[in-house]
């Protein structure tokens, strides 16, 4: 349906009008309306049908609040309202029915928001402020199509390489320094540390989503995500370790779809087992950030993951980040590692135990706790690069000759032998 709602500008119209069924709701609404600088006389007694009757003979306001409480067929009545509203009217519906399907259908019809009774002043204030912002920021035709969402999945090639630390730091950077609304999805359902790194309780959002995928919509996202700050929200879980993960992955896909609508950026902390079990998680991911270290096992699994990505997620651009770099302490050399994976390491992050301990002590992400440390400079560079990635522009991520290698293309015995030769004699275990 081509809705007339939310498509125009304020112009010379009245800023606000409301049609509310009961006095109790009007008593809560009028002080907020006065606070917004509007006339309380515009708060009329009567519901949706009264609004339709009134607007059929008078001009529509910029923001219209209508009560659905006495409507037997809200969706049909909303369609009738659309026929008498002028283009650009922002409509806020009020009702008593707490039904996600109704909420979804109302939003699909062009409604800006749906508020449940009993109304509260803060609830009304927030909704009206958001409605007012539609006119405060001019939008060109097709603005929704210009919304450019960027998604990155952060995958550790081995346990303990620091993938979760990098994921939370990137999410914080997107939100705080790039001013992008950001969703952090921690898919380690039983042992995730995303909320812990932000000093937050994980809540039940992710668990509820897995158990009831049909509930996932814009309203669910708004209520289930835990806010770290104005621009950053997280969805994670601490599921009981005696409860195995029972899902076909539909919930994860739906969450990503909703994030793409509600946020500028999504960061998915993606454990390797989840990648294997639910390959569709990478369908709409722009950049896969592979976090690795200079070890034989990590080199092997980087090769395997690059090969897997090439086969299963060809549209996602892999980014190799080597974490915990220590001078002279690597199991294999950087040159040997790059030779084995047949591509360059894109970014290197120095090992800094003191910085990691400082972050844990403060209950902050690694980068927030160590903003002035040189250790975090590569993380800033990674965030800047990912934030600038367009949907169809990944060429800048690809180095000449960088291609995934099949496991059988490299002799790991020779690599191990070469690594040993490069080590000083004193690095061998003492007898």
TrEMBL record:
One of its GO terms (biological process) is negative regulation of cell division. InterPro entries: CheY-like_superfamily, P-loop_NTPase, ParA/MinD_ATPase. The keyword Translocase does not apply. GO terms for molecular function: ATP binding; ATP hydrolysis activity. Transmembrane segments: none annotated. Keywords: ATP-binding, Nucleotide-binding. GO terms for cellular component: cytoplasmic side of plasma membrane; cytosol. Gene3D superfamilies: 3.40.50.2300, P-loop containing nucleotide triphosphate hydrolases. This is Pilus assembly protein CpaE. It comes from Aurantiacibacter gangjinensis.
């Amino acid at each position: 349906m081509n809705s007339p709602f939310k498509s125009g500008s304020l112009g010379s119209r009245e800023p606000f009008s409301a049609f509310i069924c009961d006095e109790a709701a009007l008593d809560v609404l009028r002080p907020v309306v006065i606070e917004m600088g509007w006339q309380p006389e515009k708060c009329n007694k009567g519901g949706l049908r009264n609004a339709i009757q009134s607007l059929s003979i008078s001009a529509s306001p910029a923001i219209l609040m209508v009560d659905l409480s006495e409507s037997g067929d809200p969706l049909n009545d909303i369609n009738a309202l659309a026929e008498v509203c002028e283009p650009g009217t922002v409509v806020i519906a009020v009702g008593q029915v707490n039904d996600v399907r109704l909420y979804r259908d109302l939003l699909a019809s062009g409604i800006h928001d749906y508020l449940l009774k009993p109304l509260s002043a803060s609830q009304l204030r927030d909704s009206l402020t958001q409605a007012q912002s539609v006119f405060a920021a001019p939008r060109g035709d097709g603005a929704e199509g210009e919304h450019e969402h960027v998604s990155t999945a952060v995958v550790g090639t081995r346990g303990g390489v620091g993938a979760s630390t990098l994921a939370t730091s990137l999410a914080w950077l997107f939100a705080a320094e790039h001013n992008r609304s950001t969703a952090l999805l921690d898919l380690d359902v039983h042992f995730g540390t995303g909320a812990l790194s932000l000093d937050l309780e994980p809540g039940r959002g992710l668990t509820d989503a897995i158990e009831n995928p049909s509930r996932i919509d814009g309203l669910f996202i708004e209520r289930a995500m835990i806010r770290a700050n104005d621009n950053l929200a997280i969805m994670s879980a601490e599921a009981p370790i005696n409860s195995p993960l029972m899902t076909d992955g539909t919930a994860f896909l739906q969450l990503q779809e909703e994030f793409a609508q509600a946020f500028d950026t999504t960061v998915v902390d993606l454990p390797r087992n989840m990648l294997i079990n639910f390959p569709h998680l990478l369908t709409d991911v722009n950049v896969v950030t592979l976090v690795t270290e200079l070890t034989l096992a990590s080199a092997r699994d980087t090769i395997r993951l690059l090969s897997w990505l090439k086969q299963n997620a060809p549209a996602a651009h892999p980014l190799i980040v080597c974490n915990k770099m220590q001078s002279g302490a690597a199991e294999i050399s950087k040159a040997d590692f790059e030779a084995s994976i047949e591509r360059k390491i894109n970014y290197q992050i120095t090992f800094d135990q003191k910085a990691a301990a400082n972050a844990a002590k403060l209950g902050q992400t690694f980068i927030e706790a160590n903003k002035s440390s040189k250790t975090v400079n590569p993380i800033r560079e990674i965030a800047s690069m990912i934030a600038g990635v367009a949907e169809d522009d990944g060429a800048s991520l690809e180095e000449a000759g960088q291609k995934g290698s099949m496991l059988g293309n490299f002799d790991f015995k020779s690599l191990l032998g070469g690594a040993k030769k490069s080590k000083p004699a004193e690095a061998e275990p003492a007898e």
